[in-house]
Every structure is written in C-alpha cells, then in structure tokens.
Specification:
single chain, two-stranded antiparallel ribbon, Growth Hormone, Chain: A, two-stranded antiparallel sheet, mainly alpha, globular, 4 strands
C-alpha cells in the first residue's frame, strides 16, 4: 500500500476546479490533434503510412512519459508534473499548427505525446487525492470534462473550417493555433490554482515495496475497455454508414451517439458510484456495452444501430474513471501509470486491429472482438474492492 507522506489541502472547490481545467484543456488539445488529422495529411502531403508514423510517435512518447510521470508525481507531487507537461502538450500542438514539414510534425507529435502521457497520470493522481478528501466520488465528472474538451475541439475545428474555408490542409494552422492559445491560457490558469498535491513513498521499513498485484488485473481491465472504447470512437461512424448503407454525413450520428451518451453518463455517474460502488458500476457498464455491441452485430437499420452505439457509450463511459480511481487509491502514481498505459495503448492499437478484422471478416463480424472484451471486463470486475482503501 502506498503511504502519503506530505498532503496538501485538497477538499476545496478551487482544487476540484483546477482538475476540471486540466482534464478539459487536455481533452481539447488531444481532440484537436485527432480532429485535424485528415487535413494534416493533405498539408504534409503524406499517405496513410505518414499518418501512422505520426500516431506511432505520439503513442510511444506518451507511454514512455507515463512511466516517468507517475513516479515523479509520487516523488515531488503532481502539481509540477501537470504544469510542465501541459506546457509540453501545448508546445507540441503549437508546432503542429505552424509546420508543413513531416520532420517537424514528428517533433510536434513527440512533444505532444511526452506532455499528454505524464499529464494524464498527474491529473488523475490529483483527481484521486481530491476524491479522497470528499465524502462522495468525483472522478466520473473529471473524465466528463475530458470528453467535453474533445467535443469542444471538434467544434472549433469545424467552425474554423467554415470561417476560413481553405482547401485541403489550409485550416490546420488556424484550428490548432486557436487550441494552442487555449492551451497557453490553461497553463496560466493552472499555475494559479492547481494544488501542490501529496508526495508518496513506496517504502516499508526502509525497503521499497513491490507494485501491488492488483495493478495487472486493473491493467487487463484497462486494455479491455480501451480497445472497446477506441473501437466505438473510431469505427462507429464507418460502421453505421456501411451497415445501414447511408450517406457518410448521416453515419457520423454513430459517433454522436457514443460520445453524447458517454458525456451524459460521466456527468451523472458519481451519484451512481456513491450509491452502488465501483464494482457494481463497472460490472453493469460492461454488461451494457456487451448489449450495445450485440445490437451492432445483429442489426442493419439506422435506429437500432444508433441505439446500440448509444448503449456502448453509456456502458463504457463510467468504466475508465473507476478503474483509474482504484489504481490511484491503492498504489499511487506509479500504479496508476501502469494501468493508464494499458488503457492508452489499447485505445490506440485497438482501432488498427479492428481495421485488419474488417478487411478479413467484415465490419459487423469485427465487432465481436470488442464485444468479447467487454464480457471479459464484466468477469474481471470481481477483483475491484467493494470500498476504496
């Protein structure tokens, strides 16, 4: 068990508001990168392999950063880690905003990955600490603000495209430039209000303690929901378009159903967690996601398909906040870093795996994989403690 040795007051509304800011700005910056990828491809003059290189650089640097950031957050407190990495993430997005060179785009992605990975762990660590100082859970609402940041970024990308109306990749600069300004404002606000956080020593009688075995079970859960959620985010619109045989613009309602219900359930989910506990919430969420994926596999008309994807978003929306919260409660930043890495890696590689399955067995049959992993999630949920340590 991790033992806190220094603790800052974390129960104030200002502290919670600071973490809401971190989650929202992080979600907006990452959402902006994802939302401009098609235009970035045109701006850089690269193929799908070029985009794969950029995403690979983002992923590898983020995973490396998570491991370092988790340990630093325990050693020196999460505040300096969150502030420095938010600056790195903003610098990465700013680099992507101004470059038309693949080499500099790689630099931008590496900076963004280094910032995002450690920031992810640091802001979740702060969220766990705030939750420990409160009578009721709050992690789901923190993650709701990340989703709202994503939606805000998507809106900015669309709005900038309408305002500037430039061909090809001409809108990348204005869109990411706007989000860079938002990131810089976030750095200023965060510097003023983000609390210091606690320092945690993973030692007992002067001997460094081992990482709890629960970390690996939580990591497996994170892999399951990461792939299932990544599939929903990246493939729902394509799935609805191809299966219902409708216009791609209408197919985008699949993503709206997923993300919309995910935001709603995260905003309301803390009350459910307080009443029924994390284990029950994750178990019911996994069952709901299984039901949603079953609908996507066995139906082919628009209304039930949208209902299926809504169930997926509703079911998976509360899972990540609970799994990450348990990791932070039990093992601090270093354990949280391990679990977040599993979820992050699955979220990134999962859609690519689904793409290969779509090529070989078809898009509806490919949904059996996230369906199965959602069922595994239900089974492994038994390892979650009934109450927080």
């Amino acid at each position: 068990m991790a033992a806190p040795v220094v603790s800052a007051p974390m129960s104030s509304r200002t502290a919670a508001g600071a973490v809401f800011v971190l989650f929202g700005v992080n979600g907006a910056l990452i959402g902006g990168v994802g939302g401009t990828l098609p235009a970035m491809r045109d701006r850089l003059g690269v193929s799908a392999s070029g985009l794969s290189l950029l995403l690979f650089c983002l992923a590898v640097s983020a995973v490396l950063s998570m491991q370092i950031g988790g340990r630093l957050a325990d050693r020196i407190g999460a505040r300096p880690v969150a502030l420095v990495t938010l600056g790195l993430l903003t610098a990465g997005v700013g680099t992507l905003a101004v470059t038309s060179s693949l080499a500099w785009a790689v630099v931008g992605m590496v900076l963004a990955g280094l910032g995002n990975g450690a920031m992810d762990v640091a802001m979740n660590s702060l969220g766990v600490e705030i939750e420990q100082a409160r009578p009721k859970p709050i992690m789901s609402r923190f993650h709701a603000f990340w989703s709202l940041g994503n939606l805000t970024a998507a809106g900015i990308v669309v709005l900038v495209g309408r305002l500037f109306d430039r061909p090809g990749g001409g809108n990348v600069g204005p869109a990411l430039g706007t989000l860079t300004v938002l990131g810089l404002a976030g750095v200023v606000v965060a510097y003023r209000i983000v609390p210091a956080g606690r320092r945690i020593e993973h030692t007992k009688d002067g001997v460094r303690t081992a990482i709890p075995k629960l970390a690996w079970a939580l990591g497996l859960m994170a892999f399951c929901f990461g792939l299932a959620e990544g599939t929903a985010v990246d493939w729902s619109s394509v799935h609805v378009t191809d299966v219902a045989r409708i216009d791609p613009s209408t197919g985008a309602l699949g993503l709206v159903a997923v993300s919309g219900f995910m935001v709603v359930v995260r905003l309301l989910g803390d009350q459910v967690v307080a009443r029924f506990g994390r284990r029950a919430v994750v178990r019911v969420g996994g069952v709901t996601a299984v039901a949603g994926y079953l609908v996507t596999v066995f139906t082919d008309s628009l209304p039930p398909l949208l209902a299926g994807w809504a169930l997926v978003g509703l079911g998976l929306g509360l899972v990540a906040p609970q799994v990450y919260a348990v990791a932070g409660h039990v093992g601090g930043g270093r354990m949280l870093a391990i679990v977040v890495t599993f979820g992050y890696a699955a979220f990134l590689v999962g859609p690519a795996i689904i793409g290969q399955l779509v090529e070989r067995v078809g898009i509806q049959q490919a949904m059996f994989l996230p369906l199965a992993l959602s069922a595994v999630l239900v089974t492994i949920s038994a390892v979650l403690p009934r109450t927080d340590p």
